[in-house]
Design brief:
About 25% of the residues lie in helices and about 25% in strands. It is α+β, with helices and mostly antiparallel strands and about 375 residues long. Among the domains are: about 70 residues, Helix Hairpins (Orthogonal Bundle); about 90 residues, Urease metallochaperone UreE, N-terminal domain (HSP40/DNAj peptide-binding domain); about 90 residues, Urease metallochaperone UreE, N-terminal domain (HSP40/DNAj peptide-binding domain). Homodimer.
Length: about 375
């Protein structure tokens, strides 16, 4: 049986370069064509086939031995031609377009990052502190208890047992990362990832500290005193520098934030730096006038209720509120008056009020009688003349 010799492909023609093209010229030609015909960029089926030929041509012409076979008239990728097919021995499937660019211009994954430090800054912590109105108004030094991570006193943050030291990781040689090599049609593509043995530190702890298990810190309860300035409001936070969590490896501690929560007061309500309260006065006191003694947060103040004061009236006491947090001075105290009308009258009290109403020309209706004021009001609503 006769066999027909396979015609060698024109690999130079596929890449569009001369037979005496340099390696750089071949690479530039391939780079240009790969961008144009890669399946991720060009979905045309013909472009896919073209891309296979471009891969094969670059695989051959970038290899000195295979290129020599082509120059002698052979085809190293043809059966019996001495080749191992596109990609060469052990080549995996085609990589993505981004992998091509990474192979030429340098992949971020291949860049050496180096080992990460074992000592890192700690995180911030927050604590809720409840205070009374007098404490938030005038300030206080409040004791607090916090549960945070602190430096391990056994190993002083090193994480190693007494008499031992960190050791260089044998898996990564102290680099904190390991590299993997993938053979593609471009050649070898190198990528890096954190070492799983040392977790990227580049060192290992042969004998961890028995107290902190190698972390360099332990959790403990501490007592502190926080100075609350006068005039703080509900929800404000006070920062205590480096009183938060100590970082791994005994790293610098974060900050502690004390969040203020003001308890409700029995008498006063607060709006900013102003205080508000309600005081009930008898109807006669509102009509005749009187003097009240108001107990403020830090003093007692006399307040005059003028004769004829109406329900809902408000009295203002300047600078008897909460001290300003930033600056001097204080807010005001507002006293809201509720006029109390008597609900039960004996016969003499009722007679006196009726006589008083007559002297003022005010008609007082009696619910038991017909034709009084309420009767006329009812008739007006019902359309009676």
């Amino acid at each position: 049986m006769r066999t027909r010799n396979a015609v060698a492909k024109d690999y130079y023609g596929i890449l569009g370069v001369n037979r005496d093209a340099s390696d750089d010229e071949i690479k530039r030609a391939y780079r240009k064509l790969a961008r144009q015909y890669h399946p991720d960029v060009n979905p045309d089926p013909e472009a896919h086939e073209k891309f296979k030929d471009i891969n094969a041509a670059y695989e051959v012409l970038s290899d000195d031995q295979k290129r020599q076979i082509v120059d002698l008239g052979g085809d190293p990728l043809a059966p019996g031609g001495g080749g191992a097919g596109p990609g060469g021995p052990g080549a995996g499937p085609f990589v993505g377009f981004q992998d091509i660019m990474d192979a030429f211009f340098g992949a971020a994954g291949g860049a050496s990052r180096g080992p990460r430090p074992r000592t890192r800054p700690g995180s911030d912590a927050i604590l809720r502190l409840e205070l009374d109105l007098n404490e938030t108004a005038f300030g206080v030094e409040a004791p607090i208890t916090v549960d945070t991570a602190v430096v391990c006193t056994t190993c002083s943050g090193a994480g190693t047992a007494a008499g031992t030291h960190l050791a260089t990781c044998e898996a990564c040689g102290g680099r904190g990362e390991v590299q993997s090599i993938q053979r593609t049609f471009l050649g070898q593509v190198v990528s890096s990832r954190p070492c799983t043995v040392c977790q990227g530190y580049g060192t290992v702890i042969p004998s961890p500290c028995p107290t902190c298990a190698g972390d360099g810190r332990v959790r403990t309860r501490r007592s502190l005193t926080v100075k609350i300035p006068a005039g703080v409001e509900d929800g404000m936070r006070i920062r205590l520098a480096q009183q938060g969590e100590v970082g791994p490896g005994g790293g610098t501690a974060g900050d502690l934030y004390v969040e203020i929560h003001e308890r409700p007061h029995d008498v006063y309500s607060r709006k900013g730096d102003d205080l508000h309260c309600r005081v009930t006065v008898p109807m006669t006191a509102a009509a005749l006038g009187t003097r009240l003694t108001i107990k403020t947060l830090d003093s007692e103040e006399p307040v005059d209720v003028k004769p004829g004061t109406q329900p809902g009236a408000t009295l203002r006491l300047r600078a008897r509120g909460v001290p300003h947090l930033r600056g001097t001075g204080r807010g005001d105290l507002y006293v809201h008056l509720d006029v109390r009308t008597p609900t039960k009258l004996d016969a003499d009290q009722e007679r006196i009020l009726r006589d008083f109403a007559k002297t003022r020309g005010e008609e007082v209706a009696e619910l038991s009688k017909q034709g009084g004021f309420f009767s006329r009001m009812r008739d007006a609503f019902n359309g009676h003349a």
